[in-house]
Amino acid sequence: MDWRLLAKRQWPLALSLAGIVVAEAGSIDTASGWWQVPGVLVICVIAVLAPRRPFDAALAVAFSIACVAGYLRFLGVAFEPHFFISGANISTTGAAMATIAVLVRESSRWRAVIGTLLVVGAMIAAEVLGWPVVSAVEYRDWEPDPSSYLFGACIMLVLAVGTGLYFRARDAERASQLAASVAAAQNAERMALARELHDVVAHYVTAIVVHAQAGQMNRDADVLPVIAASGNEALTAMRRLVGTMRDGDSAGPAASSSLMDDVRSLAAESGLPVRLSFDLRDAVPQELARSVLRLVQESLTNTRKHALSVSSVDLELSSGDGLLRLVVLDDGVASGVPVGGSGGYGLVGMRERVELLGGTFSAGRREPTGWTVRAELPIA
């Protein structure tokens, strides 16, 4: 764990233990009693740093508690004030509980069990080592009730383990939610990439196939420059798409400051008899204009792929009441086999694009012949 993250996470525990140690130091009566302070500080520091290496911290805390209790017994003093019958004080008990909670939260099951048993064993050892010193001074006239202290110790152990299990479950839930969010984001990126590939590359490749077939049928060499131009456009679009994926910018056609000019350019490139009608009363944002160009491009590509005997394509673009409206009508006859085959994703991608922008989309056959595409997109 990073030191900055550790400090952000552990500062409440550090302040709490520091305050308890200071309060306990104020209750020390004998000079030899001050020997507990260095050992207690070491135990508290290890507890604060426990998230970095939980199992090692549990071993170090258990060893430190046993060592402090041992040299206090050697000096003939006890923890002041001792929290249980004769053993560790409040700060040591709090550090042990915090270490167990971190261990249960972050370590494997067997490491958590072993580390917890070692810390509990060290606390019991502190009780046993401190008993002869404390009993000789404090328990000469009456005998303490071990069952009440044992009950309190069990409550604290359950509280420490329960806290660790709670945070462990919450971490697992958070990791699951994060994994689901990452999967959803990756899926959205794949869908966006699929739309871009279909809308950009398929448009120019379809033009190449159409002109190549026309050249084969008519033995017309004049289509070769058109095929070359469409190939260059396809390569440019692919490079733009790859650059977008590398740089992280949003992909899309290069929209100029004039949406009408861009639509005219797409209509001219399509080679279809397109009749344009514009009634734009509102300024169209650049991002929205780029999506409209995608819809126009895909609509004209579908007409060229799926329709025969097209005598006119009516393209209307208007705005009003906060909406941008696009209508594309053709009078072609549905072909049995579309040029280059069909993956069936064109209308799906158009509908997804419109719905992502909060608009409505519809497409269907006209009577007696032809196809209609309608889209309404909010401008704001």
UniProtKB/TrEMBL annotation:
It is an enzyme of class 2 (transferase). Residues 189-248 form the Signal transduction histidine kinase subgroup 3 dimerisation and phosphoacceptor domain. The keyword Magnesium does not apply. CDD domains: HATPase_UhpB-NarQ-NarX-like (cd16917). GO terms for cellular component: membrane. The keyword Kinase applies. Its EC number is 2.7.13.3. It catalyses: ATP + protein L-histidine = ADP + protein N-phospho-L-histidine. It comes from the Bacteria. One of its GO terms (molecular function) is protein dimerization activity. Keywords: ATP-binding, Kinase, Membrane, Nucleotide-binding, Phosphoprotein, Transferase, Transmembrane, Transmembrane helix, Two-component regulatory system. The chain crosses the membrane at residues 33-50, 57-76, 82-104, 116-137, 149-167. Residues 290-379 form the Histidine kinase/HSP90-like ATPase domain. InterPro entries: HATPase_C_sf (IPR036890), HATPase_dom (IPR003594), Sensor_HK_TwoCompSys (IPR050482), Sig_transdc_His_kin_sub3_dim/P (IPR011712). This is histidine kinase.
